[in-house]
Amino acid sequence: LLLLLLLLLLLLLLLLLLLLLFHTTQPTTYTRYWSPISGSATVNLGQVQEAWRPLMQTMVNLTQISSIKSTFQFRTFDPEGVIFYGDTKNGLDWFILGLKGGFPLMQISKVDMLVSVAGGPRLNDGKWHTLEVSNHGQFVILDVDGSQGLVVGLRSKQTDEDLMGELRLALGGILINTDKMIVQFRPQMDGCVREGSWLNLTIPWETEADQIWPCYENIKPGSFFPGTGFAIFNASVFPTDTDQGIQIEFWGDFSQMDGTICSIKPDGQDVMFALVANNNTKEVTLTFGPDKLIMTESFSRLMVTFQTDALTVLHDGSEAARIAISPMSSPGYWSMWREGTLAIGGLLGEDDVGSQFLSGCLEKIQIQGKDLDLDLSTKHMLMSSHSCPV
């Protein structure tokens, strides 16, 4: 009898352990919370944190649609990204309006057709433009500032079906897989939309953002860092030239910046290079290994050249310093470009976690004489990649 009781007790303990193990190994589910927002609101499309995921979206029954026209105002300096998306039949028929090279790009899927057309006026000039997208029988028309921008003709051998079901609309992202598109492009759009009238609908849209980023009244080209994020690049993607060296150049009002402008960290090592601005002292400090250079002069252009035997610093065209590199440290110095990580707007730490984030505007960033697009970074967050408030 005692043995039987012990066996029952062991079985109960085993059952409790199995239940506990099953409970703790279940995947955690996360609920996305949506907030309502007016379709006519002013929204900054640049705050989307997840590539291709819309900033805001809405859904309506097709029987409620009384207009086949959508109008809105749009402003950007960004040459590429998603503006507006719509679909029916749960994504079988869809429409995408974006920019590529600064020009409007429309891509449409309908029944057995897949169409792409680009052209019209260049829109990334930083000015507000009024855009109108409308459907006229077999044609989809994009008007820009009252003039015809793009016209797409669609004609299928299949019989048109009566539209039933629901229509989905989205801003700043899409709701289909990207491999369905004819023309691939980067999704991030540092731009603003306002005064939208979407198919004459009055229902609210939904957004996951806790609050919508502001759209500043006046903007200028550049990359704006609000002190909450940075961009990371694999340094190996930049061409290296041991004879001519590697040039990084920054433009902007350095006296108005505060925080880390740039840092470079070799793989598995401490930060080797850092450029930090201090708004209180109006100093810009460059740290390169054990060497430190403090610049107190006012300047708006800074160029750092990494060479085999020295690091040269120029501001506004005049040489500020030349830091010699010993032959012993040169191999490790070049390895930071072959295997290291470069950050713009933050100080790199372990596992590429940033700190001392930059507050201010970098009007231009160049590496090896070519403009650096922050949208190409492996990770970037909480910044405006192509515009700065004035």
TrEMBL record:
Locations listed in the record: Secreted
Residues of the Laminin G domain: 49-215
UniProtKB keywords: Disulfide bond, Glycoprotein, Lipid-binding, Repeat, Secreted, Signal, Steroid-binding
One GO cellular component term: extracellular region
Pfam families given in the database record: Laminin_G_1
Main location: secreted
Signal peptide span: 1-27
TM region positions: none
InterPro entries tied to this protein: ConA-like_dom_sf, GAS-SHBG-PROS, Laminin_G
GO molecular function: steroid binding
Function summary: Functions as an androgen transport protein, but may also be involved in receptor mediated processes. Each dimer binds one molecule of steroid. Specific for 5-alpha-dihydrotestosterone, testosterone, and 17-beta-estradiol. Regulates the plasma metabolic clearance rate of steroid hormones by controlling their plasma concentration.
Subunit structure as annotated in this protein's UniProt entry: Homodimer.
Protein name according to UniProt: Sex hormone-binding globulin
